[in-house]
User: Which sequence fits this backbone?
């Protein structure tokens, strides 16, 4: 990138999979897209009813989030994590992705003497892209074989320059669970705010769901979303919660930018957060699909396909990930994500999103002889 050219956005990672779609579409029943974690099951009817009857579409919604929405998030955190986070320390965001992508620029304005974003080396690509878009240094923190951030490997200079540290648990793409207490302690020790992306927390398989806020609010923010929990990715409703000063600062900045979740979406989200039953049913569906596809793909490919500790992705090593993805598209009609989408440390892996309905999962199974 030269100064004359300015910033040239890189190709969107998933666009590279387009060449495999015709291979999958050639099979009877067409392509089964397991490459993106887009929920396909229906949300609760009461949520749709609230969306259509809130009468909140006429006026401008509160950027920080309506009181009912923030109270609903607070109540949900109490039920799910056994923590008390007051509504005054919770604010809405337009889904979690925009928060991830825009956070570095707001933090750079807050602390102009720092310029570095630390993020997991195996991770969702938007952590790195958010840093790039803000003109910051993006420094990947190595991840151990069990999915923990190797915090000891962070160079002293990077820690001194860090605006923030991202942690993601359960992790996308690996499904590993990180040591959130260790991350919070590292951040406090080095004076670095820690942001914990917990959008897959409801789908934690190894033990109860965890939040970084169980280790205190000081210097930490937990980020949550309705997209995965309630199959509401199209509504774009999330929330960030924790350190009072950080929540106040970010909500004030975002107010000036006009970051507002539509009023009807906020009303529907409050209804969804109050309902735990539909999440329990969705959890059972994802667990069943994970087990089914792990069995089918393991038998077909001859490699070990372990079940994740959390999330709804299968993550396993195959060697040449792009060759594997092409073969799976050709023989099984399924699109999956090669591991290099998620960093250089994971080039030999693939990620399989088990979000498709059962009949589509079974279609792939039949094609692969399962």
Assistant:
């Amino acid at each position: 990138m030269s100064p004359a050219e300015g910033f040239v956005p890189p190709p969107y990672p998933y666009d590279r999979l387009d060449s495999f779609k015709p291979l999958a579409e050639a099979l009877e029943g067409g392509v089964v897209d397991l490459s993106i974690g887009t929920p396909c099951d229906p949300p609760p009817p009461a949520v749709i009813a609230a969306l259509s009857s809130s009468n909140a579409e006429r006026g401008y919604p509160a950027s920080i989030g309506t009181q009912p929405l923030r109270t609903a998030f607070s109540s949900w955190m109490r039920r799910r994590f056994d923590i008390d986070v007051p509504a005054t320390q919770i604010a809405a965001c337009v889904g979690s992705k925009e928060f991830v992508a825009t956070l570095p620029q707001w933090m750079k304005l807050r602390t102009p003497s720092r310029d570095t974003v630390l993020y997991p080396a195996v991770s969702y690509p938007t952590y790195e892209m958010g840093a790039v878009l803000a003109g910051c240094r993006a420094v990947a923190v190595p991840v151990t074989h069990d999915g923990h951030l190797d915090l000891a490997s962070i160079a002293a200079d990077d820690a001194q320059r860090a605006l923030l540290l991202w942690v993601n648990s359960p992790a996308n793409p690996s499904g590993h669970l990180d040591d959130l207490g260790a991350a919070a302690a590292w951040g406090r020790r080095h004076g670095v705010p820690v942001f914990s992306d917990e959008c897959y927390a409801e789908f934690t398989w190894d033990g109860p769901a965890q939040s970084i806020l169980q280790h205190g609010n000081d210097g930490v923010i937990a980020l949550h979303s309705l997209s995965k929990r309630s199959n509401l990715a199209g509504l774009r409703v999330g929330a960030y919660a924790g350190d009072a000063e950080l929540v106040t600062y970010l909500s004030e900045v975002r107010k000036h930018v006009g970051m507002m979740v539509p009023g009807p979406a906020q009303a529907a989200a409050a209804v969804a957060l109050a309902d735990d039953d539909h999440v329990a049913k969705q959890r059972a569906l994802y667990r069943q699909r994970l087990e089914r596809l792990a069995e089918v793909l393991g038998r077909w490919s001859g490699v070990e396909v372990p079940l994740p500790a959390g999330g709804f992705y299968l993550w396993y090593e195959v060697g040449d990930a792009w060759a594997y993805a092409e073969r799976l598209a050709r023989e099984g009609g399924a699109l999956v994500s090669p591991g290099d989408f998620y960093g250089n440390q994971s080039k030999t892996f693939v990620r399989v999103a088990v979000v498709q309905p059962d009949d589509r999962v079974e279609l792939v199974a039949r094609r692969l002889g399962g």
Summary: The first helix runs from residue 21 to 25.
